[in-house]
Design a protein that fits this description.
single chain, three-stranded mixed β-sheet, 8 helices, elongated
């Protein structure tokens, strides 16, 4: 048996002798080269622990949720953007195609906010640039409609007294 670095196991040497080969340590096991995986090597760059907020920020950016989350932030921070008094009488109700719709308690508040539109819009764009707000629409209070409901009938409506 030739001299080798590591002894060949008996089962392997018996198999090789039966096949007519001489057992050698290098035929027994070839060491393969491992490719270094830089991402999974401990104590390397990028393996430091990160906070949950950092991980969530990366996930939301990769998923493309940042604009939607920024619009939600506009709604949540409405009191800071519009002011406490104004926020007490208004509330954001919709966001569609870059236009934020805000409903007011009265028509007077809606008209006052229309005069303040540019100031409120510039504040939203300054604080939340990713939200994509390009305009604001102010509505008065909801008034009950006589045209809708389970008992509505087609025609001119309840004030139709001519006939």
């Amino acid at each position: 048996m030739p001299e080798s670095d590591a002894p060949v196991p008996e089962t392997v040497s018996t198999y090789l002798r039966l096949r007519g080969l001489e057992p050698q340590s290098r035929t027994f096991r070839k060491k393969r080269r491992r490719e270094l995986d830089e991402e999974n090597v401990p104590f390397s760059a990028g393996r430091d622990p990160r906070g949950v907020g950092d991980v969530l920020a990366v996930m939301t950016r990769e998923a493309g949720w940042n604009p939607q989350l920024a619009r939600e932030d506009v709604v949540l921070a409405w009191a800071e953007v519009a002011g406490e008094d104004t926020a007490g009488h208004t509330r954001p109700v919709a966001f569609q195609e870059g236009t934020l719709t805000v409903q007011a308690d009265s028509t007077a508040w809606a008209k006052q906010l229309q005069l303040m539109r540019s100031h409120i819009l510039s504040e939203i764009v300054r604080r939340f640039p990713e939200a994509g707000v390009t305009g604001i629409r102010f509505l008065g209070p909801d008034v009950p409609s006589w045209k809708w409901g389970p008992r509505a009938i087609p025609g001119r409506g309840p004030r139709d007294t001519y006939g």
